[in-house]
Design brief:
With about 140 residues, this protein is of the alpha+beta class. The protein has one domain (about 5-135): Roll (2,3-Dihydroxybiphenyl 1,2-Dioxygenase, domain 1), CATH 3.10.180.10. The chain has 3 helices and 10 strands. The chain is globular. The two termini are about 20 Å apart. InterPro entries: Glyas_Bleomycin-R_OHBP_Dase, Glyas_Fos-R_dOase_dom, VOC_core.
């Protein structure tokens, strides 16, 4: 059930400008490997640019206030952004959250093909994602 930082998601209405800024000013490069395939028909159809420092990705996602409603989920990860961790055992992590009394939204693969994602809030209301890449992906 180990967790490792995978990406930071910044939400914007200026995906192109943000992409340019993070590459030109911040020295990030366009991410070409390990980029998720968005499931635009299942609840989130926004544009996303992917940049990286070579270790951690930054997802520059178009704000979508309706994504939670479209998927029937309480936590909307593209309302104001989130920090994301990858795990090798999401079911164990979900049991851990249940034991700790932390409520979460189980998005399954509604946003990203081949990723099972859950989202929850930290004590200050920041959104946290934990996901597992499904076998064969």
């Amino acid at each position: 059930m180990a967790l490792r930082l995978h990406h930071i998601n910044l939400v914007t209405q200026k995906v192109g400008e943000m992409d340019d800024f993070y590459r030109r000013v911040m020295g990030q490069r366009r991410e070409d490997t390990g980029v998720p395939v968005l499931e635009k028909q299942k609840g989130y159809a926004g544009d996303v640019a992917f940049v990286t420092d070579g270790v951690v990705q930054t997802h520059l996602a178009q704000r979508d206030l309706g994504a939670g409603f479209a998927t029937g989920q309480i936590v909307n990860p593209v309302e104001r952004g989130h920090i994301a961790f990858r795990t090798d055992d999401l079911q164990a992590f979900m049991r851990h959250l249940d034991e700790k009394g932390v409520r979460y939204s189980d998005w399954g693969d509604r946003a990203v093909a081949g990723w099972h994602q859950i989202f929850f809030y930290d004590p200050d209301g920041n959104v946290i994602e934990v996901h597992q890449v499904e076998e064969g992906e």
